[in-house]
Amino acid sequence: MTPLIFLVGLLVLFWLLIVMPQRRRRQQQAALIGELVPGDEVLTLGGLLGTLREVGEHEVVLEIAPETRVRVAKSAITGRIEPEAEPTETAETQLP
What we know:
Layout: H1 2-34, E1 41-44, E2 49-55, E3 59-65, E4 68-73, E5 77-81, H2 89-93
Antiparallel strand pairs: 1-2, 1-5, 2-3, 3-4
């Protein structure tokens, strides 16, 4: 009976530490890909940073430099880059 309890405990631990986080990441990736619109700044799996110019069903056109565009699979988009906030006046006046 004890080995059965140990085995069930290992299966539950495996589920909690391996399966659940992977499922959550897949859901977040699917949500990100579904929300892509032209003009978004994104990061690809290969480390390219760029601005989306066209969004297709399975691929996107990414502008990585002025007038330099590449086609990338949608599944290669790993994150959206949020624009940096403008510096405030108080931050500029606090410089030494």
